[in-house]
Structure formats: C-alpha cells, structure tokens
Give the backbone structure.
Amino acid sequence: SHIMSEFVRMTDTDRDQIDQDAQVFMRTCADAIHLLRTEAHKGVQSAQVKEHRTAVLDFIEDYLKRVCKLYSEQRAIRVKRVIDKKRL
C-alpha cells in the first residue's frame, strides 16, 4: 500500500497517448523495414550477401509482427476492462 502510493496512476488519456504513439512507432518501423528491403539489394552482386540481407530483414520483420501481436493482445485486454467497468 505504501509503495503503491508513491506511484502516480496513469490516466486513460495517458494510455490513449501511449497507444497512439505505439501505433505510429510500429507503422514507422514497418515502413523502415520495407525501405531497407528495397535498398538492400541495390548494387549488390553477391548472391550470398543478398540472401543474408533477406534473412536478416525477414527476421526483423517477423520480430516486429510478434511485437505488434503482443501489443494488440494487451490493448484488447485494456478495451475489455473498460467495457467491463462501464457495465458495472
């Protein structure tokens, strides 16, 4: 109880802002990966280098997708809690 009183609780506005910022950040990351993918093969002659870059970008893209999925699940929990609160 004493420890909890030292922390300021987040408001719904704070949470909404974090959600908005997270969505912008994830979109920016996806765009950057897409841009990197188009730039990664320009001027590269070696098939091994192309394959390596493709694998690295696939890994990064997969990681971003997993982060987005986790974010969506967390946001769904928050929305469900808000709906449950309104019902009460």
